[in-house]
Amino acid sequence: MSDRQKQSRSQIASTSQMKKLMAAYFLEIDEAKKTGKQKVAWCTSVGPAELLHSMGFLVYYPENHGALLGATRMATDVIPLANAVGYSPDICSYLTADVGAYLKGVTPLTRAYGIQNIPKADILVYNTNQCRDVQDWFSFYAREWDVPIVGIHTHRNIREVENFHIADLVSQMKSMIPTLERVSGNRFDIDRLREVVDLSLQCTKLWRRVLECGAAKPAPLTFFDATIHMAPAVILRGKPEAIEYYKLLIAELEDRIKTKEGAVPGERHRLYWDGMPVWGKLRELSDQFYQLRTNVVASTYCNSWIFDAFDPKDPFESMARAYTELFIVRDESFKEWYMDKWIENFSIDGVIFHDAKTCPNNSNNRYSMPQRMAKRLGLPTLVLHGDLNDLRCYSEEQTRTNIEAFVEQLDQKDG
Ligand code: SF4
């Protein structure tokens, strides 16, 4: 794409406000570590963040740091350091990038915000709803810093979320409270938890609305935009700032819908992306689809921060349900039902499955789902082999060629 074409792409104006929010979030945590003013809890991206906020912790999400390492292309350089101390190149490349960066003493937060180090955790809190890797990842830091680690073990590959799942998860969450009280120095307060769950509920409803804007024709945003704008839903849920931000973004997107300003002018095809983003190649992929006048308008990944179940009246039960109803927790039949619904609502004409080498948990192509989907819906599907962070597993050339051929196939289908 020429520089002139790049300049002509209309940018989402709210992005500048989001950047300010991100900076304020990281600087607040950095300051708290320097002054010892407030304790910091590390939390997995779909862990019990509301409980931690309610107990007065600042909450830090290492997966977000992993994604930053990928997006800044630092990951591929630092992963070998983690491999050298025994973390296999085949396991989660968020984990290996994050541990490698720690061992090397580098972080993308330095360039972005002048922050020298990731914040040392006062406690590490995980939920295995997404994978086992998060437990092993947090265990590295628990050993390194000799700090407490607590976790929730979620039932996985389930079709329906049953009451006995919820009862078990609620009791696991409640059993964490004495440790959280000891580390934070604060008493648990159910009313404060209700308030935080209510803030998360408002945030998630707005985030759903942002993503549903993609159903408009032409769509006012792309999957690649959404991977950037989901940051507040990930790291600021439970905080009022996220709510204010999404109101601003929705107003902008709804304006675009009214004026029919598509993120991809002359949008010809509408795709669904399943699986992780390729963080180090967002720009290249976004540019290629733009040139092909094809928009990736919906994805499984960005939907992972829609938590319809939150309910301030039942904070524990609803958190347990919200974090178990997730796509990644469910079996293939649920996943297919879920994707079919989004494919229909977003008028999708093709589906891309990203087979991320180091994340089997988010790669849904491995048990014949694309073939079943193609047969059931009569939709073309494409499997791209790559990775979320480790660009040694990604071939730029091969990916470009495969996407080009796929879009040609869509063109032919249209006749
Ligand atoms: S779900 Fe995948 S990307 Fe996320 S932490 Fe687990 S292995 Fe890593």
Q: Let me know the average pLDDT.
A: 96
The side-by-side strand order for the widest beta sheet comes to: 2-1-3-4
The residue ranges in which pLDDT falls below 50 over 5 or more consecutive positions are: none
List cofactors, ions and other ligands. Answer: iron/sulfur cluster
Number of domains: 1
Helical content (DSSP H or I, runs of 4+) = 40-55%
Note the beta-strand portion. Answer: 5-15%
Radius of gyration: 21 Å
Please give the largest β-sheet.
Answer: 4 strands, parallel
Q: What string, H for helix and E for strand, traces the elements in order?
A: HHEHEHHHHEHEHHHHHEHEHHHEHEH
Describe this structure in words.
- There is one protein chain.
- The protein has helices spanning 3-8, 15-35, 49-54, 62-71, 75-84, 93-104, 108-113, 133-145, 163-184, 190-212, 223-229, 231-235, 240-258, 282-291, 300-303, 315-322, 332-345, 369-377, 396-414; strands spanning 40-43, 58-60, 123-127, 149-152, 269-274, 294-299, 350-356, 381-386.
- It has 19 helices and eight strands.
- The radius of gyration is 21 Å and the shape is globular.
- Helix content is 54%, strand content 10%.
- It is an alpha/beta fold and 415 residues long.
- Helix 5 (75-84) packs across helix 6, helix 9 crosses helix 16 (315-322) and helix 10 (190-212) packs parallel to helix 13.
- The protein has a four-stranded parallel sheet with strand order 2-1-3-4, sandwiched between helices. It has a four-stranded parallel sheet with strand order 6-5-7-8, with helices on both faces.
- Helix 3 (49-54) links the parallel strand 1 and strand 2.
- It has one domain.
- The longest helix is centred in the middle third of the chain and has 23 residues, at 190-212.
- Iron/sulfur cluster binds next to helix 8.
